[in-house]
Design a protein that fits this description.
By secondary structure, the protein is α+β, with helices and mostly antiparallel strands. The chain has 9 helices and 6 strands, in the order αααααααααββββββ. Strands 1-6-2-3-4-5 form a 6-stranded antiparallel beta sheet. The relative contact order is 0.14. α1 packs antiparallel against α2, α2 crosses α5 and α7 crosses α8.
């Protein structure tokens, strides 16, 4: 096993420890994708055509809100796609960590099994050497050739014990060899899975970076006044969504009290306000959406799945009207975003690239459902 064993352990530990912290997804308002524009005429908004009759060098007129609304929708879609890819990246990362740990554990079992097998072989060798010292005859033959009645009786017990010991030794060697084969097969399977997840991470990473780059390029084409108006449109959309949610009267029904662990989780999330959103990050200096919620609950002493999709799949679902501070609200049909409910119709979440951990209205995005980590 020598060099191969050390290589296996080294590679496994490297995979466990080498976690790259990069930038990550954010809040996204899913919307149809408008056809991208290649217009570069000054004063026009990406996604729209140059205005007819616009003379070169003329002072541009402010773009209509409908054009900026298309930009907003396109940005939301890009960041939403980045959020979906980020969940895939995080899931592949978690699986890779688990597989790396499994490989390390298997490597240790293989080493221990080989040492055991060597000891068993030494015992078998010692038995063979004892036979050689006895004239080359096995104990059974020596027993049958004895003329001494007492030696005959003593030999009967010796032969019986020897046969039992030999049978046990052979059995142990067989089982140990079988275990080693199983460990080796399992390790090979884990390596194949690890390689597949490395590829999945690479694909997700490429998509995340592509979506974010396109969003940043789209925003960079806007003039200062256009960016200000776009930000205002985003605030208006969020306000409208929150108002519609509150108008249902839902807040009158929500009166749950936070559990002790829930209060700790909320306190952790609150302490992260203002830290940047970075995809794939789970603290301490930056977070993505599920990195924030998973670390908050880990700090509260109750570890939960790393990704928003797994949080939705594995944690207990509760009705919106029954939620309490510390519960997690899952957003969008694909469970691509998660936030922590903190009471009074508000959430704390890590929105998207370019934003920071912030407080927002719980109804500003389409709610898929609510989950409770400490149910």
């Amino acid at each position: 096993m020598g060099t191969g064993k050390r290589g296996l352990l080294t590679a496994a530990v490297t995979v466990v420890c080498a976690v790259t912290v990069l930038a990550a997804p954010g809040t996204a308002f899913a919307a149809p994708k408008p056809t991208p524009s290649t217009s570069t005429v000054p004063g026009t908004v990406p996604g729209t055509a140059p205005r007819a009759g616009a003379a070169p060098g003329a002072v541009p007129t402010p773009p209509p809100d409908k054009d900026l609304e298309k930009v907003r929708e396109r940005l939301d879609q890009l960041y939403h796609d980045a959020a979906v890819a980020t969940d895939s990246y995080n899931a592949a990362e978690e699986r890779a960590k688990e597989q790396s740990a499994r490989i390390v554990a298997l490597a240790k079992k293989i080493v221990a099994g080989q040492r055991k097998l060597e000891r068993l072989k030494d015992q078998a060798g010692a038995s063979a050497r004892a036979q050689y010292r006895g004239g080359g005859l096995p104990p059974t033959a020596q027993f049958l050739l004895s003329d001494d009645p007492q030696q005959f009786l003593d030999g009967a017990g010796t032969v019986l014990n020897g046969q039992r010991a030999t049978t046990k030794l052979i059995g142990e060697m067989t089982r140990t060899q079988q275990e080693l084969r199983e460990y080796a097969d399992d390790a090979s399977a884990q390596w194949r899975k690890l390689d597949a997840n490395r590829k999945a991470k690479a694909v997700a990473k490429k998509k995340i970076k592509r979506q974010i780059a396109e969003a940043e390029q789209l925003e960079s084409r806007l003039e200062k006044k256009q960016k200000a108006r776009l930000a205002e449109l985003e605030r208006q959309a969020a306000y409208k969504a929150q108002t519609q949610w509150l108008d249902t009267g839902i807040l009158k029904e929500i009166d749950g009290k936070a559990s002790q662990q829930g209060r700790k989780a909320v306190a952790f999330a609150t302490a992260q306000l203002g830290k940047p959103y970075v995809w794939g990050a789970e603290g301490p200096d930056s977070f993505d959406c599920s990195g924030l919620t998973s670390q908050a609950w880990a700090d509260a002493g109750h570890p939960i799945p790393r990704t928003s999709q797994e949080q939705w799949r594995q944690l207990k679902h509760v009705d919106v009207k029954d939620m309490r501070p510390g519960d997690l609200i899952i957003y969008f049909d694909d469970a691509s975003h998660v936030a922590m409910y903190v009471g009074d119709g508000a959430i704390i979440h890590a929105p998207r690239p370019g934003r920071t951990v912030t407080v927002a209205g719980a109804g500003t995005m389409p709610i898929l459902g609510v989950v409770r980590p400490d149910a």
